[in-house]
Amino acid sequence: MEVLPCSRVAHIARMKKPYHSNIAFHTRRNALRVAEVWMDEYKSNVYLAWNIPMENHGIDYGDISQRVALRKSLQCKSFQWYLDNVYPEMRRYNNTLFYGEIRNSKVSHLCMDQGMKENHTATLHPCHGWGPQLGRFTKEGQLFLGPLGSTGEDTRCVVDDQISSFPQLLNCDKVTNVKQKTWHFTQNESIINRATGRCLEVVPANVYFGHLLVLQPCSGQRWTIKNTMKQ
């Protein structure tokens, strides 16, 4: 296998698709089959990318015993070897604790959302579960928000810059104050910034969805992140 990260591929579509219009179920199924056979401890990255729980996900990916036996008979190297030697630029997400939509118990129909990227501010939006609402909380206490990137895009995390009343969504690698970009959080508890002690909270406001996402003294609001990463 040769990896060409800068390659460009063109696709000319037919006037009429020769397959079912909704192929998401089948692509998820195939993705999980590949993950379970070939990716070892990194299979969790596929569940994360698809925003699928690692258990009780309801997707029957079928019998993979023959594929596992084939891998063994071919004496294939581990996926760790592939990442170390073939594609070391690829981001790794094994430090994830929780992932998926981030909801506040006071307004559970709204989810934390990356909003317009140029605004650099995390916001609230009706929950839909797609990329802009893909949250990820790590062992280091960083809270990422937005679609995953294989090599560069996944560097935006929620930050308390100690100035604004709104949580900033910034390139995590460029935030030098570690405490500003790290948080205390466990499921169904507050999200508390380690630099300021301020909490991520929602407040009623005369805006389109009726609430704002703000940083303020903690009042005991509780948050949940949809999925727990199986360790």
TrEMBL record:
<keyword id="KW-0735">Signal-anchor</keyword>
<keyword id="KW-0430">Lectin</keyword>
<keyword id="KW-0472">Membrane</keyword>
<dbReference type="GO" id="GO:0006493">
    <property type="term" value="P:protein O-linked glycosylation"/>
</dbReference>
<keyword id="KW-0808">Transferase</keyword>
<comment type="pathway">
    <text>Protein modification; protein glycosylation.</text>
</comment>
<keyword id="KW-0333">Golgi apparatus</keyword>
<dbReference type="InterPro" id="IPR000772">
    <property type="entry name" value="Ricin_B_lectin"/>
</dbReference>
<keyword id="KW-0812">Transmembrane</keyword>
<dbReference type="GO" id="GO:0004653">
    <property type="term" value="F:polypeptide N-acetylgalactosaminyltransferase activity"/>
</dbReference>
<dbReference type="GO" id="GO:0046872">
    <property type="term" value="F:metal ion binding"/>
</dbReference>
<protein>
    <recommendedName>
        <fullName>polypeptide N-acetylgalactosaminyltransferase</fullName>
        <ecNumber>2.4.1.41</ecNumber>
    </recommendedName>
</protein>
<dbReference type="GO" id="GO:0030246">
    <property type="term" value="F:carbohydrate binding"/>
</dbReference>
<keyword id="KW-1133">Transmembrane helix</keyword>
<keyword id="KW-0325">Glycoprotein</keyword>
<keyword id="KW-0479">Metal-binding</keyword>
<dbReference type="Pfam" id="PF00652">
    <property type="entry name" value="Ricin_B_lectin"/>
</dbReference>
<dbReference type="GO" id="GO:0000139">
    <property type="term" value="C:Golgi membrane"/>
</dbReference>
<comment type="similarity">
    <text>Belongs to the glycosyltransferase 2 family. GalNAc-T subfamily.</text>
</comment>
<feature type="domain" description="Ricin B lectin">
    <location>
        <begin position="98"/>
        <end position="226"/>
    </location>
</feature>
<dbReference type="InterPro" id="IPR029044">
    <property type="entry name" value="Nucleotide-diphossugar_trans"/>
</dbReference>
<keyword id="KW-1015">Disulfide bond</keyword>
<dbReference type="InterPro" id="IPR035992">
    <property type="entry name" value="Ricin_B-like_lectins"/>
</dbReference>
<keyword id="KW-0464">Manganese</keyword>
<keyword id="KW-0328">Glycosyltransferase</keyword>
